Each structure stands twice: as structure tokens, then as C-alpha cells.
Amino acid sequence: MIAYLRGPVTAVTLTSAVVEVGGVGLELHCTPGTLATLSPMIGTRREAHLPTSMVVREDSLTLFGFADDDEKSCFELLQTASGVGPKLAQAMLAVLSPDALRTAVAADDTKTLTRVPGIGQKGAQRIILELKDRLGAPTGGHVAAISATSEPWRDQVRQGLVGLGWSVKDADQAVEQVSVDVAPGTAPDVAGLLRAALRTLSKA
């Protein structure tokens, strides 16, 4: 199994990134939050270090990349619940941080879990039942790390799109597309980005 990858990022799409290791480009499926941290590295030759999890199927080998070991552990643990495969586990981590998931499961909060596309009320109840004693208590540190590095405009644009009726998946894709026009560390025009995201979704 491949535990982690270290190398320069050569490409980032809406759902994956390519990391060069030993002259070979390996594609990693990542959450939008992780991809947002990798996009600025393209062309800089800065090395990214990503914990990974390999999902083996009869006809495929798929690598998933994560922001840290906690996210990786949560991804693998989520898949032990009935009906949760790698795609749904990744979707859960795209919407909720590991600590937010722990908090929701510990509090029997099905409403929070059903925010994830693909999880209904019964599915949320099953996940809580099967994982309540396994996910553990919130650590606190992971949430703080996300808050310190996240870009507020992303959440504002995403929430605006969802409020206008777009799905979380479509909103995340639109946010990633307009993010290329935002210089790192700047405070962009959120209203302008929301209009640009809407134009992107309308074309799609």
C-alpha cells in the first residue's frame, strides 16, 4: 500500500491532483479543500506531502489524497459503515471536517450528516449507529487548523450558490473554477465571484 506521496504538483482538476514522484505522475482524488491548497503549487516545484489511501477494485487502483493523517484515518473508518464507499466517504469529508463529523455522530445529529449529497435520513441514522463508538471524540485541533488556513470567500460563494438552488457538488465545482482568478492572500470581491460562478454554472 502507498501510505503517502511527496513531490511537485503538476496539475489540479476539479476532483483530483497529479503529483510527480520519481518521474511518474500519480493522480490523487482529493476534496475541494485539499485541492485548493495544492493549486498554488503548480509550476513552482514546491513539494506537496499528502497521506494517501489506495482503494483496490478488480478493474482499478484508485489513490485518494488527504490534507493530513486525521482526514485519512477518518476516510478509512467511514468506509467500515454499511453503504459507505470511498466516493461517499470523500463527499462527507468535502462537506464536513473530521471533527465536525465526530461532533455530529456523537450528538446523533442526522441533520448535519444529511447535508452530504447521497446521505438521507436513514443513511445518517445507520452511520451514527455503526460509528458512534469508533470515530472518537472531537480533537479540537483539526477544526482550528482548518479555520486558520481556509479562505472565507469560498464559503460565502458556496453558500450563496446553494441558497440559489444549486447542489453542493455543483457549487464546489464552480468555486474551484473561479478560484483561479483569486490571488493567494487577497480579499476578493465576493459578489463578483458569485456572479462569475453563476455564469460558469449556466454554461454547464
TrEMBL record:
<dbReference type="Pfam" id="PF01330">
    <property type="entry name" value="RuvA_N"/>
</dbReference>
<dbReference type="GO" id="GO:0009379">
    <property type="term" value="C:Holliday junction helicase complex"/>
</dbReference>
<comment type="similarity">
    <text>Belongs to the RuvA family.</text>
</comment>
<dbReference type="InterPro" id="IPR013849">
    <property type="entry name" value="DNA_helicase_Holl-junc_RuvA_I"/>
</dbReference>
<dbReference type="InterPro" id="IPR003583">
    <property type="entry name" value="Hlx-hairpin-Hlx_DNA-bd_motif"/>
</dbReference>
<dbReference type="InterPro" id="IPR036267">
    <property type="entry name" value="RuvA_C_sf"/>
</dbReference>
<dbReference type="InterPro" id="IPR000085">
    <property type="entry name" value="RuvA"/>
</dbReference>
<dbReference type="GO" id="GO:0006281">
    <property type="term" value="P:DNA repair"/>
</dbReference>
<dbReference type="GO" id="GO:0005524">
    <property type="term" value="F:ATP binding"/>
</dbReference>
<feature type="domain" description="Helix-hairpin-helix DNA-binding motif class 1">
    <location>
        <begin position="111"/>
        <end position="130"/>
    </location>
</feature>
<keyword id="KW-0227">DNA damage</keyword>
<dbReference type="Pfam" id="PF07499">
    <property type="entry name" value="RuvA_C"/>
</dbReference>
<dbReference type="GO" id="GO:0009378">
    <property type="term" value="F:four-way junction helicase activity"/>
</dbReference>
<dbReference type="GO" id="GO:0000400">
    <property type="term" value="F:four-way junction DNA binding"/>
</dbReference>
<dbReference type="GO" id="GO:0048476">
    <property type="term" value="C:Holliday junction resolvase complex"/>
</dbReference>
<comment type="subunit">
    <text>Homotetramer. Forms an RuvA(8)-RuvB(12)-Holliday junction (HJ) complex. HJ DNA is sandwiched between 2 RuvA tetramers; dsDNA enters through RuvA and exits via RuvB. An RuvB hexamer assembles on each DNA strand where it exits the tetramer. Each RuvB hexamer is contacted by two RuvA subunits (via domain III) on 2 adjacent RuvB subunits; this complex drives branch migration. In the full resolvosome a probable DNA-RuvA(4)-RuvB(12)-RuvC(2) complex forms which resolves the HJ.</text>
</comment>
<feature type="region of interest" description="Domain III">
    <location>
        <begin position="146"/>
        <end position="204"/>
    </location>
</feature>
<keyword id="KW-0963">Cytoplasm</keyword>
<dbReference type="InterPro" id="IPR012340">
    <property type="entry name" value="NA-bd_OB-fold"/>
</dbReference>
<dbReference type="InterPro" id="IPR010994">
    <property type="entry name" value="RuvA_2-like"/>
</dbReference>
<dbReference type="GO" id="GO:0005737">
    <property type="term" value="C:cytoplasm"/>
</dbReference>
<keyword id="KW-0234">DNA repair</keyword>
<comment type="function">
    <text>The RuvA-RuvB-RuvC complex processes Holliday junction (HJ) DNA during genetic recombination and DNA repair, while the RuvA-RuvB complex plays an important role in the rescue of blocked DNA replication forks via replication fork reversal (RFR). RuvA specifically binds to HJ cruciform DNA, conferring on it an open structure. The RuvB hexamer acts as an ATP-dependent pump, pulling dsDNA into and through the RuvAB complex. HJ branch migration allows RuvC to scan DNA until it finds its consensus sequence, where it cleaves and resolves the cruciform DNA.</text>
</comment>
<feature type="domain" description="Helix-hairpin-helix DNA-binding motif class 1">
    <location>
        <begin position="76"/>
        <end position="95"/>
    </location>
</feature>
<dbReference type="InterPro" id="IPR011114">
    <property type="entry name" value="RuvA_C"/>
</dbReference>
<protein>
    <recommendedName>
        <fullName>Holliday junction branch migration complex subunit RuvA</fullName>
    </recommendedName>
</protein>
<dbReference type="GO" id="GO:0006310">
    <property type="term" value="P:DNA recombination"/>
</dbReference>
<keyword id="KW-0238">DNA-binding</keyword>
<keyword id="KW-0233">DNA recombination</keyword>
<dbReference type="Pfam" id="PF14520">
    <property type="entry name" value="HHH_5"/>
</dbReference>
